[in-house]
Amino acid sequence: MYKALILDDDGEQREVVEGEVTWGELDPAKIIKLALCNDNGEVLAVIDKPDPEINDSFQEFIQYQTAHITGVSVANTITDVVAQAGGWTDGKYEYVIVVDIPTERLFMQTLPRMHFHPKSVDNPRNQQPT
Amino acid sequence: MGAPTTEFKQIPTDGSVAAGDIDTGAERNTAMSTWSAVDVGTPLDFGSVSISGGAANSSVQAVAFRVTAFNGNTTVTNMRFWVTENFADSTVNWAKVDLDAGDWVATPTPSNPTSAATPTSEPGTQNVLKADSSTTDLTDEYTDVSDTTEAIVLHIAVGASETLGTYQGTAGSQDLQFNLKFDFS
Lengths: 130, 185
What we know:
The complex is a heterodimer.
Chain A: E1 2-7, E2 13-17, E3 31-37, E4 43-48, E5 60-70, E6 80-89, E7 93-100, E8 105-112
Antiparallel strand pairs in A: 1-2, 1-3, 3-4, 5-6, 6-7, 7-8
Chain B: E1 5-10, H1 25-34, E2 56-57, E3 61-69, E4 75-85, E5 90-97, E6 116-117, E7 138-139, E8 151-158, E9 176-184
Antiparallel strand pairs in B: 1-3, 2-8, 3-8, 4-7, 4-9, 5-6, 5-8
């Protein structure tokens, strides 16, 4: 489960909770804090948007979950969600905190950029052919 | 938001599906609805393999994966495929087939398409792509349904020293199942 602190259109801060929002509809630039929670809503980790005065390359929000499906037992069902991750990217790499859901273990990962918010300017689907 | 609803479907390998039948997304969308699901009731059946005369190959089977409901998500990416098994002397081999390019082989064999050993632990990076074998993501293309992945063509090269038994999921006398992990958001 995620909780996020976002900036409303009027600049006020507002907390949103997964289930109340469709992430793709949120402007990634307005998400300023992301909390990774367990199923009970208890916060396991909080990830602040990096201060642009310190490093202005970390501007894009990253959020994804990981599901596991096996070819025998659970095909054609809603899959098992095994991890959730949140963080920011500098456009080249993703710096995320991952929660392993079964164990609630937290770890950090640096990955090549592969997850794109639907409104990301870096999303290949949002780029116009030249 | 919940996780996407997904499915594995078995692509017939009996010659009934020609490359030209599934070389567009629209064709695959229709065809997937007619193919058998891979689940508890209809596992991917590689048949019986006799090694009385030495090493032998199983039958060749093929599957494709897709999202059948995004449940509010927009993208499935970073698909990682591997098998878990406890073979003593056998290898699960796989080939990934670019369906858009018309590379599907109607009656695949252990040597056609060319295969390699399937990973036996979770890969560190994405190793399955969309049906065009170049796009990393599955997205909503057919009213909340995605296009398929590449075809995943599998067979088992059974070694002469393999332990006899039934290899089926976790229900047989020995373990054999395939796994897919994917990210969604």
